Amino acid sequence: xxxxxxxxxTLILPGEFYHLFHVWDFPEKLxxxxxxxxxxxxxxxxCLMLVAIAIIRYMMICNPLxxxxxxxxxxxxxxxxxxxxxxxSIPHGILQGKHSRQTQHPNxxxxxxxxxxxxxxxxxxxLDCFFLCFVYRN
Length: 138
Fold this sequence. Notes:
The protein has a single domain, classed as Rhodopsin 7-helix transmembrane proteins (Rhopdopsin 7-helix transmembrane proteins). The protein contains 4 helices and 2 strands; from the N terminus they run αααββα. The chain has helices spanning 2-21, 29-62, 71-95, 124-137, and strands spanning 96-102, 109-115. The protein has a two-stranded antiparallel ribbon with strand order 1-2. Helix 2 packs antiparallel against helix 3 (71-95). The radius of gyration is 19 Å and the shape is elongated. The two termini are 21 Å apart. The model has no long low-confidence stretch (mean pLDDT 83).
């Protein structure tokens, strides 16, 4: 979890600062897709690690005399959490991109990093939102 948080602090936070200062002129679709999918992957991984730690601590407190988590099993749980986070964050890499928006000035269009223009009028962003709500609810 410390490695994931370190990557978030070194890669995602500077990207977020760039995103905040360049809201209307985000450079490329691939940069946006990569940034948002990696961001989702790392944040979901970190959340799943916290849930796993809470479950393991609960099991250790409630069943102190039973078999505890071994280092091999802990590595498996961490790997499973990262795999689940990658699978859950794949739709972000597909759906996100450059979204065009008309500004206050005529004939000037701004581009920012959100749902790609090709997916805005489809059902896929809504399904992605419901999927994430379902995942976080459980």
